[in-house]
């Protein structure tokens, strides 16, 4: 029975470690073989497993606030408290300018996308490590793990956003036609969060050092993003350069779309969008390169 | 029976290399250790920069868990994978199910692959049985509509209908296994990969699972099954692949494979225990020696049915809450009985200054004549510390149980002391 045919010249090359329709009964052939170097991220497989992605999101939302007293209120407590502290120390004491807006709403409008980003980054970077058992024992597209964690944060974002709408009513601020741009900035926030999460989650598997740098990283990033202060403090050539931090573009875009600040999409936004896309694409490639080793290293 | 001509799995030259930690350093002085800890980050960073290691876990030593493995399996075959701890069984299944990539060679699988390598991974304790079925099904690659269509069947098979809306953290381990197996089995994969998971369930459910796997095979699907239970394997499989140290030792009928496996198990007995690497467990303490004697004379290892026996297990250290379990198997690999030092009896003695030995004494050995092997597990610190298969092999000679000779029938393993009475009318 053992007349194994060893192909001359080693292993036949397949373009992708993927599904190839083959002769026997027209069943799909899956080939397991060494994957070396850089390869295309498995987006097609992710699409095939889109229901799993949905289930992971649903699971994360469902268990996120289990066994907490405040429950889903945590989603708004965080940004609101940060806003109060910022308003007291930066707004009142340091008299930081706020583009002519009441300081609380000026900072809160930035804290809503920021909190989404910071939560996504913190939780997603641990997503693979926390599911080590599953990664080691079951095959499923690894990409679903960090992506689902990021997407689960959208619920928190929506709640915090509703509070923002309430505050706008309170201050009598009505959104202008700019608000049509809001989905673009939401997308930008999402792509930035996904990009950073892909990088950090994959790195954290190999180097647990990452999880110790996350608190430090988010704190530093918070201060280099125009949340407590306006980017208008910077003169022009520097302001465009400021877009290298994609969250700067997101935050100022949010303020412009909702509150009508003088930060209409411009060179800074463009730079932010390019950086966000670069982060996302490079993150996906880095993740693809690392993922075959996850089960061995975890 | 399904057509036997279609190829289901083709494995060629498959190999998997793991990088494991280098030999444990021993520190003589605390200062040495501190210096080493302080310089380690720089050494590691240096290694990474020089491209000698790809991750923090990459160290010096490499082992081949699977090496040059080739075989072909036709659709509808049920194949048992046998081998000692560390022989590469689990690694092989991990490669086939796509969890990890091989280092060399390839494996082609035709059709959908369902795998059950560990029970309950993928379940979330806070979610209910129903929610977990949906989630686990999705992880295994089922579509939601498909899972919902089969939900009733899955629930009925797992016998958990009453607890369907209870969070699974309240489930017993048996219920966990039943549910996990049920979802995996109803995936209707063309290829089903099952690692030793059924050992957890009760006998009735095990039988049910085996029946289900048989159905799967009858439907022309392929089953790859890892087990230590030779009886079950021989019941279920036609073909067996015996792996030893990562390579195929025997590939033939299940009987041939089991025979070869049992033979090598007996051979390893002559090996020095401390040199054996086919062990599982944390390793803070290791079994370093076993001794099976007939109690009366220290040297003789001549055991007799109905006579005293003495099992001694030597370990190389002490951890809190240490215990010793050992399991006796007969020559065809059927489990006979187990002994657990932590399950206390009134005759046990407990010395506060515990030494490095566990001694288990039997007044009457109730095993019938034949050869037996023992697997030993050392537990401690709430963990499995060491597990060795065939740590010893012993022979039992003809004897009498309370004056009664053993019955001549060869297929049984145990004799019990008993008496017959024929009451008068």
Structure overview:
The complex is a heterodimer of chains A (298) and B (425). Chain A is built from twelve helices and two strands. Chain A is mainly alpha-helical and 298 residues long. Chain A has a two-stranded antiparallel ribbon. Helix content of chain B is 25%, strand content 32%. Chain B is built from eight helices and 20 strands. Chain B has helices spanning 30-49, 89-97, 129-139, 144-158, 173-185, 203-218, 230-236, 254-268, and strands spanning 7-20, 61-74, 78-82, 104-110, 113-116, 191-194, 222-226, 239-244, 247-253, 279-280, 287-293, 303-304, 309-315, 323-330, 335-340, 357-362, 370-380, 383-397, 400-401, 404-405. In chain B, a hairpin with a 2-residue loop joins strand 8 and strand 9. The longest helix of chain B has 20 residues, at 30-49. Chain B is globular and about 65 Å long. Mean pLDDT of chain B is 82; it is low at 22-28.
> How many domains of chain A?
1
Main sheet: strands, sense, barrel of chain A = 2 strands, antiparallel
Strand order of the largest sheet of chain A: 1-2
CA-based shape of chain A: globular
In the predicted model, the low-confidence regions of chain A spanning at least 5 consecutive residues are: 1-24
Q: Specify Rg of chain A, calculated over alpha carbons.
A: 23 Å
Structural class of chain A: mainly alpha
Might you state the CATH topology name of the largest domain in chain B? Rossmann fold
Radius of gyration of chain B: 25 Å
User: Helix count of chain B, per DSSP?
Assistant: 8
* Helical stretch tally of chain A: 12
The CATH H-level homologous superfamily of the largest domain in chain B: P-loop containing nucleotide triphosphate hydrolases
């Amino acid at each position: 029975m053992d007349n194994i045919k060893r192909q001359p010249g080693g292993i036949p090359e397949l373009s992708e470690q993927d599904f190839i329709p083959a002769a026997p009964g027209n069943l799909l052939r899956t080939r397991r073989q060494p994957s070396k170097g850089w390869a295309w991220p498995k987006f097609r497989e992710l699409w095939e497993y889109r229901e799993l992605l949905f289930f992971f999101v649903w699971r994360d939302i469902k268990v996120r606030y289990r066994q907490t007293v405040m429950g889903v209120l945590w989603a708004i407590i965080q940004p609101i408290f940060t806003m109060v502290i910022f308003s007291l120390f930066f707004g009142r004491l340091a008299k930081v300018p706020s583009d002519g807006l009441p300081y609380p709403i000026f900072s809160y409008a930035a804290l809503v996308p920021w909190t989404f980003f910071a939560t996504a980054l913190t939780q997603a970077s641990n997503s693979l490590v926390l599911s080590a058992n599953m990664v080691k024992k079951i095959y499923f597209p690894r990409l679903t793990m960090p992506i689902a964690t990021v997407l689960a944060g959208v619920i928190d974002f929506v709640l915090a956003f509703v509070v923002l709408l309430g505050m706008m009513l309170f201050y009598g601020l009505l959104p202008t036609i700019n608000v049509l741009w809001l989905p673009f900035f939401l997308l930008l926030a999402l792509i930035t969060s996904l990009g950073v999460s892909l990088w950090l989650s994959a790195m954290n598997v190999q180097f647990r050092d990452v999880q110790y740098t996350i608190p430090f990283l988010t704190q530093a990033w918070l201060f280099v993003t125009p949340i407590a202060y306006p980017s208008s403090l910077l003169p022009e050539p520097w302001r465009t350069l400021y877009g290298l931090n994609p969250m700067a573009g997101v935050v100022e875009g949010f303020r412009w779309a909702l509150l009508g600040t003088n930060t209409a999409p411009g060179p800074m936004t463009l730079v932010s969008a390019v950086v966000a896309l670069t982060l996302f694409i490079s993150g996906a490639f880095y993740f693809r390169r690392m993922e075959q080793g996850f089960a061995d290293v975890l | 029976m399904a057509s036997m001509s279609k190829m289901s799995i083709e494995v060629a030259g498959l190999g998997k290399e793991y990088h494991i930690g280098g030999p444990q350093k021993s520190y003589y002085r605390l200062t040495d250790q501190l210096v080493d800890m302080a310089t380690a980050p720089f050494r590691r960073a240096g290694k990474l920069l020089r491209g000698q290691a790809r991750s923090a876990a990459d160290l010096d030593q490499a082992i081949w868990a699977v090496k040059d493995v080739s075989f072909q399996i036709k659709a509808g075959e049920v194949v048992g994978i046998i081998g000692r701890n560390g022989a590469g069984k689990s690694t092989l299944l991990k490669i086939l199910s796509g969890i990890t990539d091989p280092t060399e060679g390839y494996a082609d699988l035709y059709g959908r692959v369902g795998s059950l390598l560990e029970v309950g991974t993928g379940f979330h304790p806070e979610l209910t049985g129903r929610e977990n079925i949906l989630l686990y099904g999705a992880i295994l690659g089922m579509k939601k509509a498909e899972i919902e269509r089969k939900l009733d069947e899955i629930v009925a098979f797992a016998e958990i209908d009453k607890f369907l809306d209870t969070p699974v953290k309240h489930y017993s381990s048996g219920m966990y296994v039943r549910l996990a197996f049920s979802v995996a089995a109803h995936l209707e994969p063309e290829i089903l990969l099952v690692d030793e998971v059924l050992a957890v369930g009760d006998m009735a459910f095990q039988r049910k699972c085996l029946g289900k796997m048989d159905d799967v095979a009858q439907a022309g699907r392929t089953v790859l099954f890892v087990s230590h239970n030779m009886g079950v394997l021989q019941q279920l499989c036609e073909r067996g692949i015996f792996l030893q140290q990562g390579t195929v030792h025997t590939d033939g009928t299940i009987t041939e494979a089991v025979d070869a496996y049992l033979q090598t198990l007996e051979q390893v007995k002559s090996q020095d225990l401390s040199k054996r690497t086919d062990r599982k467990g944390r390793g803070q303490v290791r079994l370093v020696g076993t001794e099976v004697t007939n109690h009366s004379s220290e040297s003789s290892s001549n055991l007799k049915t109905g006579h005293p026996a003495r099992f001694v297990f030597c370990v190389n250290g002490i951890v809190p809450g240490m215990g010793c379990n050992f399991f006796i198997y007969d020559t065809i690999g059927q489990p006979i009985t187990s002994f657990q030092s932590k399950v206390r009896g009134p005759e046990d003695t407990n010395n506060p200054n515990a030494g490095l030995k566990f001694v288990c004494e039997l007044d009457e050995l109730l095993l019938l004549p034949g050869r037996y092997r023992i697997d030993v597990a050392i537990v401690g610190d709430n963990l499995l510390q060491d597990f060795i298969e065939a740590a010893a092999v012993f022979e039992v000679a003809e004897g009498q149980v309370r004056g009664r000779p053993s019955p001549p029938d060869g297929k049984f393993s145990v004799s019990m002391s008993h008496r017959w009475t024929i009451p008068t009318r």
